[in-house]
Amino acid sequence: MSYFREAINFMEEYIPGEQPEKEGYIKLNTNENPYPPSPLVEKKIKEALGLGKISLYPHPLGGELRERAQEVYGLPLDWIVVGNGSDELLNLLFRLFLDKGDRVAYPFPTYTLYRTLAFLQEAEREEIPFPPDFSLPESFLTSPAKLKVVCNPNSPTGTFLPLSQIEKLLSLSSCPVIVDEAYVDFAPCSALPLLQKFPNLIIVRTFSKSFSLAGLRVGLLFAHPDIVRGVLKIKDSYNVGILSQAGGAAALEDMEHMRKNVEKIKSTREWFSAEMEKLGFLVYPSQANFIMARKERRDLKFLYEELKKRKILVRYFPQWPDSLRITIGKEEEMKTLLDTIQEIIGRVNV
Amino acid sequence: MSYFREAINFMEEYIPGEQPEKEGYIKLNTNENPYPPSPLVEKKIKEALGLGKISLYPHPLGGELRERAQEVYGLPLDWIVVGNGSDELLNLLFRLFLDKGDRVAYPFPTYTLYRTLAFLQEAEREEIPFPPDFSLPESFLTSPAKLKVVCNPNSPTGTFLPLSQIEKLLSLSSCPVIVDEAYVDFAPCSALPLLQKFPNLIIVRTFSKSFSLAGLRVGLLFAHPDIVRGVLKIKDSYNVGILSQAGGAAALEDMEHMRKNVEKIKSTREWFSAEMEKLGFLVYPSQANFIMARKERRDLKFLYEELKKRKILVRYFPQWPDSLRITIGKEEEMKTLLDTIQEIIGRVNV
């Protein structure tokens, strides 16, 4: 006998990528940043520690972090929510909008957390396959769903939708539309300029990728104040601690540092994508800090496993067995990966 | 028109105590600890910062923090969940057990977050008034609710239920029973020894009170592995950051420091309670780090407001207007408070 809600017993849970407890891995499986965050982050966290305020509750709305976000992103404070990573913000949004049986639509494949969050709300999932060019499917644009989500750049493919398509989606949708911009700093542009025009647009960001702060748990949400009020109503009062607020604020004070890291990663991405194509992989054009490499009709589990044996972690999704998602690390790491892949596939003759 | 679930529009939200942005307040309104945490906390957080791992995702299950909890509380790892404060853990539990229309029961008055969490799940609330002696009401013991919650020591009253009553509750309940032990380190004993006997017992703890770490956001949940598995299934993968894990683990390495602070607070509590009684307040016997002081049939809002003008913050709940909840601070702070209350009530002749 289970005490749980029936939906919990039957739901598929989200399985995050491995976080190896042992040292010595080249870790290219969860899209972390290979370069350290701005030195200002450590400095400001130490300062916050020194203030002796760790025994007090943090600012419920994010304090200085929200103020810095206001400056950097040019939005009033009441358009901004600070979250315990963007996962918490996505979780809150699904809970805010979706009653049991309501429909949530998203193009597929995408971040599998959306499916888990839909299960949690007992929402009906409308998972619409991307066409081969990864544009937005017509039936997604016109779906009468209660909530739409699009990850841009998309994970696990890395593909990017131009602003004109996001604008078309917003125009054709009478429901809230979440644009998950976890990877947007690696892409040409953001949907931010559309916020003023579309009160149904919600943008979600994370500090885990471009800002090199996955360990700190910081995310941001941008939306019309009417939506922000709802999120604040249901979030835990003290969802982001004092040190995360200080570190996140510091990261936003040194945008130059983040941008330099992003440029290095983008350049490695272009070179690495070309090398993977030379090895016979189909590589989706990526605007993120990872690539999806595919061998059509081959199960690449063996490659994932052989790499793991050699202490290189990449991401294998059982639902897309002919592809691997590979985070862009440092150039040396990617060279080691290329050599290792060559060695493995030379041997098994893929 | 609102995009929100209808329940969200109608729900009462939880209003946390004020966190003043200006300095210079004597802050006795949110039950923080007036003494700093163990010096080991700062040391270990700085060490964690120095390891350069802040760009990596944290251990999804709490890493070293969970291991330390295993040692300190004498429970196997699979009986422990680490949370982003105990609020997150309570939130997860309500979401795990309660479908729309299911009944959640708790004695009242208590922590008002339970009401908010019930609203969020559209659960039916069975709020059963405590009898004058603050024992568990018979109808609560025998309620056929889907979930029961008891805060022990209770907030805002500070009153404490002996283990025999918790045991009786567990014996008579076929549903999961949450014992919220946020303040238990200030009380004579915990329900921990009952865990092995009652697979429906769930204990929730926080580091915000006895451990002086409200700013870090750390909580713990102890329960049978079957329940733990459900909580892990629905929690955000990376709910507690690297620095909070390090700081929480450090706090558990120095239990002696926490216990000394607790002893000081308990001694101040006994003295302060007696002084408040001399001033004509009814003071509930408290086993927490706060007291509830009452003047029957008087609205104490004026006292709260006059104290605030003099930069002393205590907690006034509009639903219990004849009482103030006062955190136990340092002895000097409580002396200042007593003098100030005397000055105010002397003047207005309460």
Q: How would you write the strand order of the largest sheet of chain A?
A: 2-8-7-6-5-3-4
Q: CATH superfamily membership of the largest domain in chain A, which one?
A: Type I PLP-dependent aspartate aminotransferase-like (Major domain)
Give me the count of strands of chain A.
12
Q: State the CATH topology of the largest domain in chain A.
A: Aspartate Aminotransferase, domain 2
Reading off the top of the CATH hierarchy, the class of the largest domain in chain A is best stated as: Alpha Beta
- Total domain count of chain A: 2
**Radius of gyration of chain A, Cα only, in angstroms?**
20 Å
Q: State the oligomer.
A: homodimer
Q: Point out poorly predicted stretches of chain A.
A: none
CATH architecture of the largest domain in chain A: 3-Layer(aba) Sandwich
The most extensive interface, with participating residues per chain, is: A-B, 74 and 74 residues
Give the proportion of residues in helices of chain A. Answer: 25-40%
- The SSE order of chain A reads HEHHEHEHEHEHEEEHHHEEHEEH
Continuous helix count of chain A: 12
Query: What number is the mean pLDDT of chain A?
Result: 96
Cα shape of chain A: globular
In whole angstroms, the N-to-C terminal distance of chain A is: 48 Å
